[in-house]
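Translate sequence into structure tokens.
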Amino acid sequence: MDPKLINDCVHCGFCLPTCPTYVLWGEEMDSPRGRIHLMKQHVEGTPVTPEMAGHFDACLGCMACVTACPSGVRYDRLIELTRVEVERRHERDPQERAVRGIVFSLFPYPRRLRLTRPVTPLARRMAGYVGRANPSLGAMAALAPRVERRERLPRVVRARGERRAVVGMLLGCVQREFFPQVNAATARVLSMEGCDVVIPPRQGCCGALSVHAGREEQARRLARRTVRVFERAGVSTVVVNSAGCGSSMKEYGELLGEEPGFEVRDLSEFLAELGPVAERHPLPLTVAYHDACHLAHAQGVRSQPRELLAGIPGLEVREIPESAICCGSAGTYNIFRPEAARDLGDRKAKAVGSTGAELLVSANPGCTMQIAAAMRRAGDDIRVAHMAEVLDASLRGVSL
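Result follows.
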């Protein structure tokens, strides 16, 4: 942990009303400035106690405090460095180690995830029973999405009409295996907007989940592989349709000690910069747009998705109250801290329901699963679509 980054915090408290765990519990040590105080204690010699590790684990890493901070405190960097230290110094109990072992041996490996696809309907039905034995495994079962038909994408999707750009496309892990229709829609939208889309084979995990959990060695190994894959593909820009993945890939320079040979752009960010050329057909829908934390706070991408939605005729965008408060997904948080995640998910579901929208638009698979599960609990099984799916429907003139 960097003492200079720690000392940048002046403990002003602007972060408090934006922090999900402080909003839930009102505990100082479960706020950003409280956790920074604990970081300082550790740097000054206090060992990582179980209580201290618990406060760090309770952080969602949503980065809302980074947006709110008037002093420019790099809490994002601080919490990542702290989690590496927690993983090195803190001895977790056997059950927690086992659950973490399952998660990090499964989610960063698309082929392994693929093997779980046939059992996801059963997992959802059995979630209550599994949860009695282990709340984390029960939460993982309850989050399982409806299985979508796999869609195989070619190595290159050619631009329609005049070619305006050549981009690489990240397939992701959860996105690839449980939301393949999102990747297919992403490739079509980029193609219709004049892009050759290069989809390198043998893509793996970008390392985002491991970065956020302090598993530094695994994160670096996965990140280096991702860099090699796209550098060999010869692209100068990689478009990412998952907020958490894009956020981590934009920080490869800090993780690996050198910048990759390409730039990373979120899909909405890239399309807004490129500008529209394909015709938009009307979509008579009311939609609520959800700001994924790792898109809005970590990447600062807020106006671009709204700009793209506003360009669709007949589409009405409704803002969600408390949009800056995390939905509780936060990578693996809703598995490791299911009670807090459930409270935040229910809070977000109530806010979404208050808009009266017909469709929720998300930009991250974790948020999609978390909010959809919370809406089911509330008895309001709202449809959820990715930004790419909404644009794809408008460009092709089909209904959602």
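Note: The longest strand covers residues 165-169.
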